[in-house]
Amino acid sequence: MRPATDIHAIIDRVENGSADIDDVAALLDSDAEADIFPLYERAYAAKRRSVGNCVYFRALIEFSNRCGKNCLYCGIRSGMTELDRYTLGEADIMRMAHWADEARYGSLVLQSGERHDPEFVAMVERVVQRIKAETKLGITLSIGEQTRQTYARWRSAGAHRYLLRIETSNPELYRSLHPADHSFADRLACLNSLRATGYQVGTGVMIGLPGQSLEDLARDIFFFRDMDVDMIGMGPYIPHAGTPLGQAAPPIPDVARRLRLTLNMIAVTRLMLPDLNIAATTALQALAPRGREFGLQVGANVIMPNVTDTEYRDGYQLYDNKPCRDENAGQCRSCLERRIASVGETIGYDEWGDAPHARRRLTEGAPT
Fold first, then answer.
1. In the predicted model, what is the mean pLDDT of the chain?
2. What CATH code would you report for 4-363?
3. For residues 266 and 278, what is the distance between their CA atoms, to the nearest angstrom?
4. What share of the chain is helix, strand, coil (3-state, %, to 5)?
5. How confident is the model at residue 365 (pLDDT cuts 50, 70, 90)?
6. How far apart are CA 310 and CA 128, in angstroms?
7. Could you report the per-residue pLDDT of 175-185, keeping only the tens digit for each?
8. Which of 62, 60, 126 shows the shortest CA–CA distance to 88?
9. pLDDT-derived band of residue 250, with 50, 70 and 90 as boundaries?
10. Phi/psi class of residue 245: alpha, beta or left (left: φ > 0; alpha: ψ in -120 to 50)?
11. Buried b (16+ CB within 10 A) or exposed e, 314-343
12. Which of 22, 339, 351, 365 has the largest CB neighbor count within 10 A?
């Protein structure tokens, strides 16, 4: 076992920017109590210094499960022919947005499968304009790869954050997760287009993928740094039994190990990049009943409560056994209030909750 003094020295190097891939991989591999206690303690201290102990809500509206992509791991991939497809009407989306505004959530995320047809692009533009005009909500989009022109239209309409997960920064591993017509280079180009069109940019990865190494995950964190992103949404890989990847390649079989690895990723990312927003994803709760609370305790500061009507939840299962499918928006709010209070955190009601990193980058005119 590595001496306890070594773990502190590695953490010091991560925090002061001198760590290398081996240092970060060593922290990610931490499992013994003598290692994870100082790792989590230092990560939470970094969170308190940089973003405080306030949790920001992003009301999640999963407004369509129609998708033109066929990613091998995803439960709404275009190849899922047996899936009942839906697209919410604008009136329904606005009703959910108004509920989130009245619930004082501060921000929302419009998320859907990826489409590029003119009718869809125009519909999103109209909805964003209406949300901007009729509510006080900050607006995040998570609608996949689009043209720079589409990103610019939605940005002009009022969206100011965009989440586009890279899933892995290893091009070889990326290829194993996608059909041949999906391009790692295109995904990178989209992240650059988002920055160029003025968004706060978010990305993220899956943790515990088949064939993924600790070094891959370490490089993911350096990727976040080098891309100068503003927010991170990452969680454990949980297979969907109806997908090619879910049928062919099991994840790390030890659920506790996958949970630990995800928490370590949150903690190390917070240490290296202290002023970003980091989400405690719902997938954490799929591995452990208090998974999201654990995420907050090791460095996360954002939670995305689902405000989509429950009748649509089963149609948006990106992975098996997704939590909270039968919990309506009001029940979710009460539950999260109790969960967040239980770990000594507060909720940033009525706040957009932009990351200090984004505010600094935009106000100081940092290179885009």
1. 94
2. 3.20.20.70
3. 7
4. 50, 10, 40
5. low
6. 22
7. 999 999 999 99
8. 62
9. low
10. alpha
11. ebbbbbeebbbeebebeebbeebeebbeeb
12. 339
Full DSSP string of 55-109: EEE-EEEEEE---S---TT-TT-TT-TTS---B--HHHHHHHHHHHHHTT--EEE
To the question of pTM greater than 0.85 for the whole model, the response is yes
CA nearest neighbour of 213 among 247, 156, 252: 252
Instruction: Give the mean model confidence (pLDDT) for residues 114-140.
Output: 98
Return the closest-CA partner of residue 243 out of 87, 86, 78, 68. 78
- How far, in Å, are 10, 41, 165, 267 from residue 38 at the CA level? 11, 5, 29, 10
Closest C-alpha to 75, from 258, 278, 220, 286:
286
Rounded CA Rg of the chain: 19
Residue 278 three-state SS: strand
116: amino acid identity, one letter: H
How far apart are alpha carbons 44 and 258 in whole angstroms? 20
pLDDT in tens, 28-87: 999 998 899 999 999 999 999 999 999 999 999 999 999 999 999 999 999 999 999 999
Q: In the block, which residue shows the tokens 């925090």?
A: 15
For the stretch 75-126, pLDDT in tens is 999 999 999 999 999 999 999 999 999 999 999 999 999 999 999 999 999 9
What are 161's strand-pairing partners?
Answer: 140, 200
Query: In the structure encoding, which two tokens stand for residue 5, read together?
Result: 């003094």
Q: What residues does each domain of the chain span? A: 4-363
CB-side exposure of 65: number of CA atoms within 13 Å?
21
Q: Which residue in 275, 271, 199, 262 sits closest to 233, CA to CA?
A: 262
